[in-house]
Amino acid sequence: MERKKRALVITVGTGTRKDTYIVRPLMKSVEESAPDFLVLVATEKSRKFAEKIALDSGYDEKTSVVHLLKDPDDFQSVFLEMNGLFTSLQARGFSGADVQVDFTSGTKAMSGGAVMSATHNQCRSIKYITGTRRDGVVVDGTEKFISIRPDQVFWLRDLRLAEELICHLRFGPAEDVLKKIPDEALPADERQVFGNLRTIAQAYHAWDLFDHGNAWKKLRSLPSNLGRLEYLRPREGGLEILERLSGGKSEEHLGEAQLLDLYNNAVRRRLEERYDDAVARLYRAVELYAQCILMKKFEIDTGDVDLSRVPAALRDRFALYRDRRDDRIRIGQHKGYELLHALGNRAGIRFLEDVSLQGRLRERNQSILAHGTKPMSRNVFDQMRQSVLELFRIEFQDFAAKARDTQFPWLSRRSLTTE
Questions:
Q1: Which one, of 156, 194, 154, lies nearest residue 175 by Cα?
Q2: Strand 144-148, strand 125-130: pairing
Q3: CB atoms within 10 A of CB 192
Q4: pLDDT of 256-304, one tens digit each?
Q5: Beta strand spans in 43-200 (E)
Q6: The pTM is what?
Q7: Per the count of CB atoms within 10 A, which of 252, 314, 388, 418 is most buried?
């Protein structure tokens, strides 16, 4: 396979002492890298050294260039000029990954600007020369090259970015960022953070999509000590809800678990300003609440209503909802609450008397995700949410507290989830 072409950029100073001849060690750097194209970044005073390095290393005007800095003591100016050199190298066919930068020599501004530019342009590596020193000067013949991969900076940055994306409920993008990080190149402590973040992103993504079994399995696999990521571990209440919803426990209180999960999911959509989705989930939660009460207290399945359990005054009307295809009687949200009202249940009575909730539910029907084209607003959601909480408290007095305890842990501090 043909070797990929590479370029080397070297900052060239005048040396730290009068008896220091900077050409010799920098020529060894050129020899060590064996670049196809050489860029020597110099000052007016160090120009002769740069030209000597190119000449004695066998490079001519076609394979090398000497760039004189406008102000070698101005960090910002050096950084910008170095960026310009990367652009010119790109025009010659060298991407950032094809370029190595040696910042051994030069002013502090030259070295700092070169390193910053190399990192910004994601070059292949940054190196400098060290070795045995005598009177502060590296002894000739003891030189060794220390090389650093600046992309490690970006991987560590991406690790923090993935964590931030998780906190903003962007689990898919967080996973996409993490997939691009080669974990073997990370420091040992960050490698563990990397693995835990991937598990956390996948788990909460599954939870957000109602894939409770997968979420429960992944969160349960987290180590006992997450270090600085401990704030991302779900509370015991959240894990208990997941276990119930994934079938890991008996179906006792399953209805409440489903309501809590659906309500919290609606709150998360509200935090993302996806109000149509948020309202749709609350609407479904209201319907589910009636279904849970009817099943638990009256053994009535809204998907297959047994008319013998329906009050006589409603039987003839409910019989009209029989599906001829399978002979089942199915009722929706409003009919479910009518039935609860007829059965004397307080939730049914409250629902039919709550004018505010009825108005919000009618507005939901105008949503583009329901039967209309009207976008939902934060105000519609917040008003509906307040009415829904009051409705749910009839059967579950501590519903709001449980919702806070089972919400994604870093969100439960927000007042929206605790009201």
A1: 194
A2: antiparallel
A3: 17
A4: 999 999 999 999 999 999 999 999 999 999 999 999 999 999 999 999 9
A5: 64-68, 99-102, 125-130, 133-134, 137-138, 144-148
A6: 0.80
A7: 388
